[in-house]
Every structure is written in C-alpha cells, then in structure tokens.
Specification:
Domain NADP-dependent oxidoreductase: 21-326
CATH architecture: Alpha-Beta Barrel
Keywords: NADP, Oxidoreductase
Distance between the termini: 72 Å
Family: Belongs to the shaker potassium channel beta subunit family.
Pfam family, one: Aldo_ket_red
Structural class: alpha/beta
GO molecular function: oxidoreductase activity
Shape: globular
CATH superfamily: NADP-dependent oxidoreductase domain
Number of domains: 1
Strand order of the largest sheet: 3-4-5-6-7-8-9-10
Radius of gyration: 21 Å
CATH class: Alpha Beta
Length: 347
C-alpha cells in the first residue's frame, strides 16, 4: 500500500517500514462526535500513503483506541498494510499497578479488545515508571511479544540514561531490544533528538517516532504576532498543557519568538509552502526521525500536512542554514574531553 507521494523509513534497526508521516489520535474520544471526524482523518491519511497510526490507552481514557478500532473496521483496510501502535502509562488514571507484570498483562488485553485487533505492531512503555523495576516491565513486554500480542516494543519520553539501561537489561538476558523512542521534537525542542540520543542511535540503532512537530500549533503561523487567539487554550483536556507550551516557547521570549516565527513565514513564502509545512518538512528532514506524528483539527488540515513530504525536498543545505540562523538554538554537542586542552597556568 506504499504511495509514490510518501517516503518510508525502517523503524530503527528493525524490518518494519513506516511512512515518514504518521497519524496520532490523541484528541479523539475526549468529546462527543469525534468518531466520524477520526474516520475521515484516517481515510485521508491512508489515501495519502500513511501506514503508521498511533494511539494510547490514556487518550480519551480508552475511547480513542475504541474509535481507531471502529475506524479500521469501517474502512475495511487490509490490517497487514497498517502499522498500529499503542502505549501503556504508569498513572493511576488508567491502572494502579503502573507498568508491573500484572498491569501490562491486563492493559494489552483491554487495548486489543478496544482496538478489535489480535495484535499491535509496536507496544510502548508510555513514560518511565520509577516504582516498578524496569527489568520486570521489559520481561513482560518480551512475553507479550512471544504471545504475538505485539511484534515490537518501544519507549516514550525516556531519557538517554533510561534508554541505555533498557538496552543493558536486554543484553544481559538476551531479550528483544526496544526499536523506537517516541519523543517530542520540533523547531523549539531539539536537545534530546539531536544531542542526548546520539549515542543510542549509534550503539543500538533506535528509531524515533516524534510527536508535536508543530509545537502544539505554535509553528503553524497562527501565533506569529506572539499572542494567543481569543478562546484558545481555555477548554479541553490539554488546554493547560498547550498554554504552558505557549508561555515556554513564545510568551516568555516574545520579541525573539516573533522575529523567528515571522522569519520562518517569509522563508516559507519564498519556498511556495505554508509555515506549517516548512516546520513539518524540517522535522522529517532529520535522518534520525523515522516518522513525525500528525494531529489535526479537521481532515482538510491533513492535505497541507501530507504535502510536507514534497516540501522536504526543497530543504537544501543553504535553506537549512537559513533556518538555523532564524532559530539560533542548535544544541551544543556533548563535550569531547579527548580534545580538551586546559588553559596554561598563569605565572
């Protein structure tokens, strides 16, 4: 079901090939009437060559999984052509046992029932659980893979040290390693993907399925004056998170942020694309990004997002250098102490 208009990459060092743009249904299920909207989004994505669909038990407290399962059944698409992923989180909102053996066994059964599937392609540990031994969580994940309830596993928002610990445990026991980390990545949030995870890429070949490529809409062009639109961030399950994100990336540095955003808009105009397309193209231009997970406020919005694959081809080294000048936030690389020369002592 691959499309010539889409690019596909292998997820980490696995043989699982996924579209460079994916769809996430995080906003599904929190309010009434989202099922048809979700179906229209999934349908448009599949028509555009997207094969990667991400959900989680936490989204809509299970309702998002149900909606995605209904969407797949309604569409009648070939399950083998789709890559479906879900995530299990250590929060009392969905289970008091964290990422324990007991809870993960229960969680996968509930998720598969809601999704109306026999298996998910990738199972994620959706945040690190500091109260359950990591070895216990990884052991049961491997058992679930042996039971064909998942084919691969990954992590979400684990730091580099925690990822290294995951791989060390797998090495010790001969278990299946995680193939992907799901992490926030966009023009304003770069350090983990571009610096902290570099040793993990090199040592273990992990892929990344990044979320928030438009920084919750901040890079869409709607905030280029540095102000929040009336009514924005005042309701909804993630309104407080979005407001905090605005304050972090724009509100607390308004003058500099406006200059950057308006500069990106001007560059996008030169390239003949939207500012949102430029921001998405920049994310997937990074070879360490396997896929960028899209959200949408309407199915029509996905038309522009999917076109970012073509915009990516316009990001020449010269254009990328201009973007770097506008952003001014490239993470400093880790210190190479072999090249360190101390200052000579003063006499």
């Amino acid at each position: 079901m691959e499309s010539e208009a889409m690019e596909y990459r292998y997820l980490g060092n696995s043989g699982l090939k996924i579209s460079v743009l994916g769809f996430g249904n995080m906003t599904s299920g929190w309010s009434e009437g989202t099922e048809q909207w979700s179906f229209d989004c999934v349908d448009k994505c599949i028509r555009g060559g997207v094969n990667f669909f991400d959900t989680a038990e936490f989204y809509g407290m299970g309702v998002a999984e149900t909606i995605l399962g209904n969407n797949i059944k309604q569409g009648g698409w070939d399950r083998d052509d789709l890559v479906i992923t879900t995530k299990f989180i250590p929060t009392k909102a969905v289970g008091i046992q964290g990422l324990s053996r007991k809870r993960l066994r229960q969680a996968i059964n509930h998720s598969l029932k809601r999704l109306q599937l026999d298996y998910v392609d990738v199972l994620y540990l959706h945040r690190f659980d500091c109260e359950v031994p990591l070895e216990e969580s990884i052991r049961i994940v491997n058992e679930l893979i042996d039971d064909d309830k998942a084919f691969y596993w990954g992590t979400s928002e684990f730091n580099a040290q925690q990822l290294a610990e995951c791989h060390a445990i797998c090495e010790k026991h001969g278990w299946i390693h995680p193939i992907a980390e799901q992490v926030q990545y966009h023009m304003f949030e770069r350090a983990e993907v571009e610096r902290d995870y570099v040793p993990i890429y090199k040592e273990y070949g992990m892929g990344t399925t990044v979320w928030g490529p438009l920084a919750g809409g901040l890079l869409s062009g709607k905030y280029n004056d540095g102000n929040i639109q009336p009514g924005r961030f005042e309701s909804g399950p993630f309104s407080q998170v979005y407001r905090q994100r605005f304050e972090t990336y724009v509100g607390s540095r308004k003058e500099a942020a406006v200059k950057t955003l308006q500069g990106l808009k001007s560059l996008a105009d030169e390239l003949g694309c939207s500012q949102a397309q430029l921001a998405l193209a920049w994310v997937i231009k990074n070879p360490d990004v396997t896929t960028a997970i899209l959200g949408a406020s309407s199915p029509a919005q996905l038309d522009g997002s999917l076109a970012a694959v073509e915009v990516m081809k316009k990001l020449t080294p010269e254009v990328l250098a201009r973007i770097e000048d506008l952003l001014g936030n490239r993470p400093a690389p880790s210190m190479n102490w072999r090249n360190f020369t101390p200052n000579p002592p003063r006499r």
